[in-house]
Records
---
Amino acid sequence: MDNWKKISFLVGVFAFMREFRPIDTFYAAYMTSPYINCTVEQIPTELYAVGSYSMFVLIIIIFLVTDYVRYKPVLIVDGLGGVMHYIAITNRPSKLRIQFGQAFFGFFYSAEVALFGYLYAMVEEKEFYQKITGHARAATLTGKFFSSCLSQILATYYGTPPFNAFVYMSIFGMSFTTIWAIFLPKVNQSLYFLNKKKVEETSMGQSTVTIYNPEKYKDSQLSIEAAPNEKKVDKPENNEVVEAEQSLINTLYNDFKQSYSDPYVRKLCFWWAVAMGGYLQVYAYMTVLYSYVLEENEDTEFTLYNGAAESLTTLIGALSAFAISKVKWNWYSVGDIFFTVGSVIAAIVLLCCVYCRNLWYIYAFYIIYGMVYQTMLTIAESEVAKRLNKKCYGLIFGFNTFIAVCINTIIIYGVIQGHFIKINIAQQFLIYTALYAILAIFFFGTSILKMFRDEGIVEYN
């Protein structure tokens, strides 16, 4: 089996089991049940907020140490963080125990950055990045589908969600994930913390060929030039040279600056960070919205189908992520329009959630949103990965996630906890709508500007 297929399979199993958390789709219902007896208002302000603040603090540490420990240990501890989170909410937990568990969940969610960093670090051939990204994203969403589908079947069978059973099943999923991570192949060496490093033919280490005005220059190709402050190094037979010693901070700064010097990378990272910030909010508070709508409608007879909605969202998202990984479009050319249309659709369905009080429609809006977001994220991740030096994956992916967590934390502090403005659960979705509307306007503007520029097309060989 080809190495990229083997790694894609191993990471896919990890990603699948990492998402086997049946309690998540009924988490808000569990918190408001007689087992715990929290109010709908307490869930976002006193429980979820702890997880968000934990994420905000830990993501900085994680993306800085991910390369130093060579990815795999972060994946192992990621699973352990999930185990601790769900153990903390077993057997009628107190509010303090739930908050303790949320702190571990913040770590669990933050460590996801190591998953895709590990995937790209283990696969050398960048022409497979779109495929392996689609496979890993599809595995993640398939795991969510299986988990939420099982939880809905059991909830329907028993007439009410068996919350404790869901929690113990989630602990099993996290334990399996931890054990599987232990047996994953190791990344051979740290890419920052060595005196000797491989030096690629260019400073960015890309296999990228840039073709400007293909009609005009169809007989010639121009390679991406090295950064002005870097010198090309003739490649010795063993492909290794001793670089001048410099501090780790300078190395990180130079790689950070070099990675974001590419306007294409900056643009996609902007979408990635803002869209993920919105997704963190939507994913966390959609189940709270379900409970809020039922309370507002004073409907005590409605059977919750949160698991069914989540399973359809993830199944359709997995299929779309897998399908988009097979599409051979030139994303440098069509990406702006693609992200414009996708962001507009996301903004519209989230806006509908603000004013709609029919839970069936809200389920449908969430399914559409999940499909669109996962499709766009697959392309954003794979396109950014193609442009980066191998050693920068953890740094750049981590920084994008950090910005997303910052956006999430600002919304938590200013809106959810009411320090800036005080709004209800449904009105929160106006904030999420605004985030995607900003992205749609930005990418529509760049697509218009591109029409008036003499730009080329970037292809990957």
---
Amino acid sequence: MRVRLRLLGAALLAAVLAALAALTLPTPASAAALTEVTGFGTNPSNLQMYLYVPDRVAPRPGLLVVVHYCTGSGPAMYSGTQFASLADRYGYIVVYPSVTRSSKCFDVSSPQALRRDGGSDPVGIMSMVNYVRQRYAVDADRIFATGTSSGAMMTNVLLGLYPDVFKAGAAFAGVPFGCFATTNGSEWNSECANGQVVRTPQQWGDLVRNAYPGYTGPRPRMQLWHGTNDDTLRYQNFTEEIKQWTNLHGLSQTPTYTDNPQSNYTRTRYGGSGGQAPVEAISMQGVTHNLPVDAAQAIRFFGLDGTTTPPTSPAPTTPAPTTPPPTTPPPTTTPPPSTGACRVTYEVNAWNNGLTASLTVTNTGSATINGWSLGFTLPAGQTITNGWNATYAPTSGAVTARNVSYNAVLAPGASVAIGFQATHTGGTGKPASFTLNGAACTTG
């Protein structure tokens, strides 16, 4: 069993090994440092709590719980993902739980872990959430969880047990709530790991409902990620997760919306076509268990990349594929004056050898644009690895970003938000200029 548990984290550990080797766990410190918190409340399984509070906290900050993989730790997730650097930008607070048991896997198997307030790791994590809420003016409508592998399993568990606390989650390579259940004290469930636990949507939903009987309130939104070549937690688990969360939301198994955010990804949405649909699932063709964690897309799904709480029936951040409203509503008066046919705002969030770029392209001309291409030259050393709301080619040098099917039309004064993730060799600057369908754009 111990060998199997190591498999959950071995591939992911390689990506952060260098950071861990240099990492010194910090003692309690000021803001913008990862800080270990002790004495945070009821903690039946002796978890450790690490807290990241950015220098500039939003007036009503969101709270994100980031849960590590087997063999991992809270500090490893802090240094190996971009959730903290995005917190610097958007002002939310991050909690990184850390397992102390020898496997370094979260308990998603025991009967007590799969019952609300039953004990084990979920109770300790909830104590961490309550600790932060008692000390900061956290927005109760913006509390979220995310994790990878064992952490993705725990994300499913947290959202299942505490639907009144967590408003959404993002699970990277996980399994449904209750799939890993055991009664013999084992942390490993081979049948689930191998994708052999197959249930109806109703059965999956009932597992969650029975863990918190009597609850009739809304269920959290869920974003699911899985690689088709995952040989640790087989791809069938992705299908079973979709069954579970669509059933909990009372939705059909038929997607409302399907697109390809990049060449080997298929994204399906259920119960809505916008960027904050009740269930969003990203299938990653050819990707193994060692899948990339797209923190920016998780933050986008949560709504933590803005200052307002997502509405109950959220307006799409990615427009619907019919006749979409612009991402930024057109002004009620005439479009703002400009010396070019378009205006581009470009924001960079960089870390170590990576960055994300967020662009807003506005049609400042007087005619509707039906089909657009944005041209720009990336600074030397930058290479795009993935993007959203546009296709990008080539991945370095002189790049052209082209519309996708649902955002091809830009009315006068309308805007579209696009973005990408890239690696860099030290230079994190912005392109010097932009063109839209060959016409020069202003920037700012």
